[in-house]
């Protein structure tokens, strides 16, 4: 069944199939032309999505632009002795101090800013994959319309 727009100016039946041709002066657009035009637009849109994603990713990974801030750093301020003073037994005080020392050493090895930036870059990479596949699929639909 052929596509028949509601604004069809010259409609006729050919071989049992209703076709539509729009006439703009000497320019005539048929059903096949609609599919090719729309398919070409979809191909260009899909390629635009892919190239925009590549451009933005290049800017982010060359530090010309910050990645989208999905994760944020939350700071906590406690002193070593505050929690230890609340506890009465010396064993518990020692355990709390050891835990705080381990946390401090871990924070020196992996600063909080680093982990937040890494998570933001990972989330941008996942979003980039989605955009790549989406742009590719849009272009594929356009190619199928042109065929």
**Which stretches are low in confidence, meaning pLDDT under 50 for 5 or more residues running?**
1-7
Question: Structural class, please?
Answer: mainly alpha
Number of helices: 4
Largest sheet entry: 3 strands, antiparallel
Distance between the termini: 17 Å
Report the portion of residues in β strands: 5-15%
Looking at the structure, what is the overall shape?
Answer: rod-shaped
The counted number of beta strands is: 3
User: What does the radius of gyration come to?
Assistant: 31 Å
Task: Please trace the helix and strand order, writing H or E for each element.
Answer: EEEHHHH
Task: Tell me roughly what share of residues is in helical segments.
Answer: 55-70%
Sequence of strands across the biggest β-sheet = 1-2-3
Mean pLDDT: 79
Can you describe this structure?
With 147 residues, the chain is mainly α. It has a domain at 46-146. Helices cover 63% and strands 11% of the residues. The protein contains four helices and three strands, in the order βββαααα. The chain has helices at 31-61, 80-86, 90-109, 112-146; strands at 10-14, 17-24, 27-29. Strands 1-2-3 form a three-stranded antiparallel beta sheet. Helix 1 (31-61) runs antiparallel to helix 4 (112-146) and helix 2 (80-86) packs antiparallel against helix 3. 5% of the residues are buried.
Name a few traits of the molecule.
rod-shaped, mainly alpha, single chain, disordered N terminus, three-stranded antiparallel beta sheet, 147 residues
């Amino acid at each position: 069944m052929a596509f028949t727009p509601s604004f069809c100016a010259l409609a006729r039946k050919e071989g049992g199939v209703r076709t539509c041709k729009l006439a703009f002066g000497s320019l005539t657009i048929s059903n096949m032309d609609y599919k090719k035009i729309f398919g070409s637009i979809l191909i260009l849109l899909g390629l635009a999505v892919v190239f925009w994603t590549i451009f933005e990713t290049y800017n982010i990974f060359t530090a010309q632009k910050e990645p989208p801030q999905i994760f944020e750093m939350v700071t906590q301020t406690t002193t070593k002795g505050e929690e230890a003073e609340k506890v009465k037994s010396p064993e518990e005080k020692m355990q709390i101090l050891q835990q705080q020392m381990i946390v401090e050493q871990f924070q020196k090895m992996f600063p909080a800013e680093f982990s937040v930036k890494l998570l933001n870059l990972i989330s941008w990479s996942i979003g980039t994959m989605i955009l790549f596949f989406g742009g590719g699929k849009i272009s594929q639909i356009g190619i199928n319309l042109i065929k």
